[in-house]
Amino acid sequence: MDLPVDEWKSYVLQKWSLLPKSIQVTISTAETLSDIFLHSSSLLQPEDEMFLKRLSRGYLVGKDPNAPLFYREEGNKKFQKKDYMGATVLYSKGVSHSRPNSEDISLCYANRSAALFHLGQYETCLKDIVRAQTHGYPERLQPKLLLRKAECLVTLGRPHEASQTISDLESNFAAKPTLAASQFQVLQRTLCRLKVKVQEKENLTETSPAALTKALEDMDLREENEQISSTSSSVSLCTDPLKGRCLVATKDILPGELLVKEDAFVSVLNPGEMPPWHRGLESKWDTRATNGDLYCHRCLKHTLAPVPCDGCSYAKYCSQECLQQAWDLYHSIECSLGGLLLTLGVFCHIALRSTLLARFEEAGKVINKLCGEITNRDTCLPESKNLAQILSYDLGGESKNKGKTVETPIPGCDINGKYENNYNAVFSLLPHTGNHSPVHKFLCALSVSALCRQLEAASLQAFTTGLRSSKLKAAAAPVLYPELNIWGVAMLRHMLQLQCNAQAITTIQQTGSEKNLITNSRQVRLATGLFPVVSLLNHSCSPNTSVSFISTVATVRASQQIKKGQEILHCYGPHESRMGVAERRQKLRSQYFFDCNCPPCEREKQRPSQGPGREAFCCHRCRALLQGYDVLSCGSTSCTESVSRDHLVSQLQDLQQQVGMARKLLRNGELERAIQLLLGCRHAAESFLLAEHSVVGGIEDDLAQAYAASGDWEKSAAHLQKSLRVVEVRHGPTSVEMGHELFKLAQIFFNGFAIPEALNTIQQAEKVLLVHYGPWNDEIQELQKMKSCLLDLPPILVGPNQ
Ligand SMILES: [Zn+2]
Ligand SMILES: [Zn+2]
Ligand SMILES: [Zn+2]
Ligand SMILES: [Zn+2]
């Protein structure tokens, strides 16, 4: 997803292997990014571009005139089955393939409004009704739409507007004597019912929904740092000869304190599983819901009612405002390149978007340097020494930087030493050019070249207007080509930077079905972004912060107490509670090019005989830890048991297969069978796995789900508490994993009316989740609702076994 699709990757790999040795050597040993780019770019042949074009065409990114009807009918089927969520997604897909101001688009919006109505999304429903009307909803169908509008307004407690809509409706009837008598009666009856409701609601005040913006406003840094934007004054930016830039605490920091709150400089929504080739599928229109259907392509907000770009079917937004902003900032250039960008992957897309955003930064010194030097001196790129200098932080001791940029001692800072969320800071992130393999650099350079050629063909004019505003106008046409090359080099730099600096923007998705009432949450990757301030944080396998996201804003909170002078650290992925030391170090070396020396790594390196820790096997007789490699023997002195590792591993595989089957049963609602199978699994697990083994925890968690689904809250809680103990041992009592597990337990107690237990667990869950997410987290909001609901219960219900 991040890198180009496999077909293009293997194509480039083959092209590379067929290059004469001398050219391979030239590219491998090129000193600067611009050399790499220009050499690779000159090798891009028309047939390569043709191949890429064929791949791009596999993505359905344009508007297909036959698709709206298909999606509307598929949506109607779901609607009839009362699957309103499914229907909403399909109508959205219909909308995105419709032309503006067509009957297609208005019908899709109108149908979507009906589904949203059933989902209780009245505000959004109203918006869709307006959209249907502005795009020319057929006159003959208006009454249905107006009725829905009136119902929404009544439910939302806006009686005045509802009355207005009702009188519109009545005049609509009066104007249409042709309406069938039966239809007229139905409408009349609904009208009467509505009028009564309006009267009931007349006195109610309007509700104000807690909006996203409010959440972000409320979550402010206590005191903003003067040296680093978006950062609290409790930290400062330092450089370390070994680590390069790092953030250090300037005072004692308490758990939960907000340290960084930074909006992404750039972000690109990960499209999700978007099947490129529809050859094998029955229908060329995909009916599955992907990230691209459910989240705004600009602000990443979850939305059930996206509005599509007028020019393509793949870019969708939460609102007209986001649509317009995206268009002005980057989408006007990207719109026609959808297929190519999906083929070349998210990193390439971010690289392009970063340079597009850079056009708008007047203060961006790098930009001025980049194009100023070139155009003023009217030289070609390779000879421009200044450019080469700017683009050559990348070879060898980058962090040391050998004083090349005299005025800025810390890379990325401006002359006054201030580090900001801007293109200058993004540009200063290290591309680690010397560490990437030659063929990887070739792949990136060739992909960027292909993108540049397309840009040149499609909309060079538009691309360059933003950046060359007034002073460069004189230079006009002759310099356009080298100018695009500069952007190519910048894009190549970004593509290489992203491997170490890309930040996955995640969200917590709730996966529980309506039936079992318990929501399982899991973290999913929503988008990829660049956050120059968050990028200042170095890695630890046992970090002292927690990163989370609202919209495109990243927040970093202290997850434990941090003493003055300590470094602020976060985890790049390989966390000590999820991966063994060897696996972690391997991953950090191959992706991030460094050897981790964090305390857990040092500790584990010194005691390599420790084995795989909590994932270990135990003796089936005495439950002591089994020790050894190929043949393991019992650690207890009084026991002589021994067993081969192969045997244990195959036993574990069998068990995991059984658990997989049980989960399938659980998903299909065959609860009784699932429970029997899971109980068997647990029994089998007890004979050879430690009680803290993740598989044991997983089985207990599944059992809790199964009992909850069958309404046995007591048993469900008992099993979840066992799972909770495993999570506590593995991840620690204040970990975010613990928070999610406590949240589930609170739901179970709540549903089972175990009031004291519920209140107690709610309090624990809140405490843990607050540290990691702050007060605007969905789960915390939900916990608070549960709490106030329990506290409001009449005393008679608070007795036992109610
Ligand atoms: Zn948006
Ligand atoms: Zn578009
Ligand atoms: Zn480590
Ligand atoms: Zn034993």
TrEMBL record:
Gene symbol of the encoding locus: SMYD4
Ranges for domain MYND-type: 296-335
Superkingdom of origin: Eukaryota
Native source species: Tursiops truncatus (Atlantic bottle-nosed dolphin)
Cellular component GO terms held in the UniProt record: cytoplasm; nucleus
Keyword set includes Methyltransferase: yes
Domain SET: 233-573
Catalytic activity, reaction form: L-lysyl-[protein] + S-adenosyl-L-methionine = N(6)-methyl-L-lysyl-[protein] + S-adenosyl-L-homocysteine + H(+)
Biological processes per GO annotation: heart development; methylation
Name used for this protein in its record: Protein-lysine N-methyltransferase SMYD4
